[in-house]
Queue: 3 jobs
Job 1
Amino acid sequence: MILSSHLSYRVLAAQEAQTLAISNKAKRLKKQGLDIVSLSVGEPDFDTPECAKQAALHAISQNFTHYTESDGIMELREAVANKFINDNDIKSVRQSTILISGGAKQCIYNVLNAICNEGDEVLIFAPYWVSYPAMVALTGATPIIIQASFEQVYKVTPLQLQAHLTINTKCVILNSPSNPTGIMYTEQEIRDLAAVLQDHDCFIISDEIYEKISFGDIKHFSPGAIESIAHRVITVNGVSKAYAMTGWRIGYMNAPEHVFKEASKVQGQSTSHPCSIAQKAALGALIGGDYDVENMRKAFSFRKQLVCDLLSTIPGIRFHIPDGAFYVFIELGSILADTGIEDDALFCSYLLDRFLLALVPGSAFGNPNSIRISFAASEQTLQKGILRLAEGISSLQNQKNV
């Protein structure tokens, strides 16, 4: 028998990602021949751009299959630096402060390990991406959750941020467009948060992985463009969402030089460097993939409207129309109480077991009594999925009324 005391307290304290757990269960059921509709997956259902594929094939034909620089190949780092300067107006970017990693997730994990010590606190805005608290816990630091309500449109206010800052605050994580809500902070809202942080000596990690997927009037804005805090901002992005390259595992970040140096050390002693072929594919995407990105964004915009129109016909649920990403975050309101379901996790289990519909409970994102729907699926799949959601809710209500 293996005693828990023989294992790492940090790993034991970290939670398994419920998004992956639900997605894996749905895949197992589908392999058994069941007609599973999964709206749980956080990845585009589009093909990788042809320019990226051809770049990868060329790299293979040229035998570009050996170790690369641990920070990433020079050409890709230069392309990323130019992207941050031209797209995001981050003036302090240099090729020498760009780190290429095995996905945006590894970028964030590298940074947290580079800056955090036991006793440090990392402020996380809820609803949050499932991995933030676990990654913080794995470093030995403490995740501090700041809850933003439905009525706040899931946006943390400057007053809330100010109230949670302490001498132990090492870092604040901002994600816009947001996973799971699809909500975006305006430039003024980001500047207002930056004003609170301006005189507080902490880092800001800006997770901008969904930057290219936006729909409304709100324009993406990077905190790294604010001169007064730029020297403490780590900007994280990658090719996974914008270019439908989740499996290629390429993320990138820009950081202050002293943070970059330590994050590079973490990567060098763990994974060495990202896949050589994938780096070339990412370079191809950044150089030639704009047309594909825009076509995908337009398709997501249409699907967003389709899903919101369908959801608006279901009584008892509440949601905000997303500004970006490819999620709708649904507040179940009185449905759980009215139907006798104890929590959102049991609600999602009921939908999967009885109606073969896979969704992710809001509790996975730090916001109980909610669910996340991904509209990274075909129109037919989305229509079938929303119909099953409506049928599931109706069935529960009918059972309660019997």
Job 2
Amino acid sequence: MTDKFSTLAALAYAYGVPAVSATIKQQLNDFIVDEELGFNCTGNGEHLYLRVQKSDLSTPDVARRLQAVTDLPLVAIGYAGMKDRRGECSQWFSLPLEASAEYKIKGIEDANLAILETQRNSRKLKIGSHKRNHFQLRLRDCEGDPAQFDARLRQIQISGLPNYFGEQRFGRDLSNLAQVQALMEQVVGSAENSGPAAAGLQHQHFKRGMLYSAARAYLFNQVLSSRIEAGNWNTYTPGDVLNLAGTDRCFAVAAGAWDEQLQRRLQEFDVHLSGPLAGAVDLKDKYISHGKVADIEDAVLRQYAVLVQALKRCGLNSARRPLRFVPIQLEWHWETATVLSLRFALSRGSYATSLLRELCNVNSSNQ
């Protein structure tokens, strides 16, 4: 049976559908992102780390340029996260390059790409290994009462935001989900087949990994949306698994053990409620939702049985992700009556597009 996918526009809003709108990315410097690694390079090792400044280039565009000038395999080039094409972004890359060949990387530079610094490190840069991203955004052509923009931003500061995966995960017009569906149906169909068809599914790791991520992200978003609709995405519900802010660590709360101290930690963003990243569940896992929360999650996941079954079949283990995030040092000011400037930082895994979605109806300029 084919699962049906809804668009991101159908996801619930924490603070109601915005009555105001704005346009982003009219100019490249309307969207500025600086990646913070959060760790120090060793100063030596086989991997050259380079921090670049790119404009109107995607992260894969830069990786392909590095491949072209070094003749390294594309898979050998590391980066911590994808950065927007339409904007001015700094980010780190790594490549296993001998010191005698470092001169080659200068060949990537042009008006849209500059090398800001280089360092040596002992390990390849991996996806998700950075600490946070710093944003400077300019919203133009703001329509609606400026007081409504201000009020929603203050609400975000106080209560945080739904930690939705952004549209980048799903491809243009949800194209990744269409590919996910075809792949998952193939996986489920091969469940009893140990021959060449099933064996062939063990290859194409990069593409499959991207599609697995899209599937898990979509399911997580649906669970989160369901909890927003139920009014408990930001409120402890018996059976919740908590996430320790800024880490991948989780812990469960014993029945009847929720107290004022835990409530205060939740209000202060020291801990967050969490939702499922679908996959096979280890019954020995201490951090499995139960009770009312498990009922909510199961009711959503049952609607996408093909995806869930295939993720398990492919050997992915279940995990947890925070249901909310809070922007770090969120500041804003009005440059003019219709131009709003925002500054904030986000920990890895959170999306600026999810913040903007809750703030206003967004028109994206591709000029």
Job 3
Amino acid sequence: MSPLRTRRTLAVLAALALSLPVATGVAGALPTEPPPDWDSAEVVELPEEPDAQLMPTSGYPDVPGVDLLGLGYQGEPLDAELLDRIGAPLPEDPEARIGEISVRLEIGPGQRDGLAEAQELLRTAVATLGPGAEQLRGALAVAQRHEAEATTRASEARQRLSSRTEALATHRQDMAEVAVAAYVSPPDADVLAQVLGGAATTTSDLSAGVLFSAKADHDGLVRDELEVSIAVAKERLAAARTVVAAATARTTATATSLAEAETRLDAHRLALELVEAARLTIEEQLPALQADLDRTIEETWGRLEELIGIDVTALGGVPTTVVKGITIHPAIAPRLHALLEHAHADGVPLGGWGHRSTERQIELRRKHCGPTPEDIFLKKASACSPPTAKPGKSMHERGLAVDFHLAGRSISTRSSPGYLWLAEHAATYGFYNLPSEPWHWSVNAK
């Protein structure tokens, strides 16, 4: 018998005679059970994403993702063009300069106050989004760590499956080779006696048929154990791959949420910088504009009437007459007389005040609008209390308007009997009401 066949036959007979578990010898380094901590690889629960709304782009500040209205802004509408206008160079012409400064002083405080409100809202937004982004950074680190651990487990599972598969293939090959060798050259009595430790046994007691039958049964058990082990390894690998997929999805989702949160945070920080810079600029510009306006008005005071468009014919050159105690321009005297006669006949004792000089108009503007030249000559009539026309712009200065009263009491509401009568009859006589003042009636409703 050749040395090779003798060694293979001895291995088979030794296993049978001494009842050694061949499966342990074949797969001793490949346990069929998973490591104790295999099933502890749970998906880490990440913190919920902060409730931060992705905001549409709209209005000033012109930063994508920032919407002041969405943040609760309720102030003056902010306009980048208006803000640029406030700081633009002023015209040289005095009239244009005064007009432009007046516009800027009118829009400037509203823009400044609006920017201050926007600044606080943006500060709050940044303070809210910052911790949310930081929380997501921590969650991403946890997700990445879990993904790495899951990947390692999957790699170990693949190695176990590969080892078991290789062991089964080797076992099957060995089974075939030993069976062929034993069939071709059955072991002699001396070899068997040596294997069995010197027992008195003959070749007939250990016939080839009995040996091969026992060996076949044992090899089948080993094969079955390896196949079960492979099936278990495949299940573990599938489970590991599921964990890896879940971990990877969680990492990707968290990274996306973090990128969105950081984009929102960066947008609000940029908007805050723009708003803070614009507010500081306006804070500096408004006092300078006011000083420039006062200086320009003072320098051009001698030409003020020309600059603001006063009709010089109204300065003492208007002829007047008196109708039932009301001083007016002679051109409308007949129609006013007829109106008053009609009203008295209807039991509505109307009276009133008509012409006033430009000097008196200036006194009223100083009283109703403010003491400065700007207040008297430039402030809008609607900004005064009560509303009062600019000097040179009032129909009273031309004698073409009447402030009516009823039995000596001002007609201050549209429910007054005096107003109701005038609303029905005044147009017949060429008098029309200024909508903002129930008592004021003129030839052109101004």
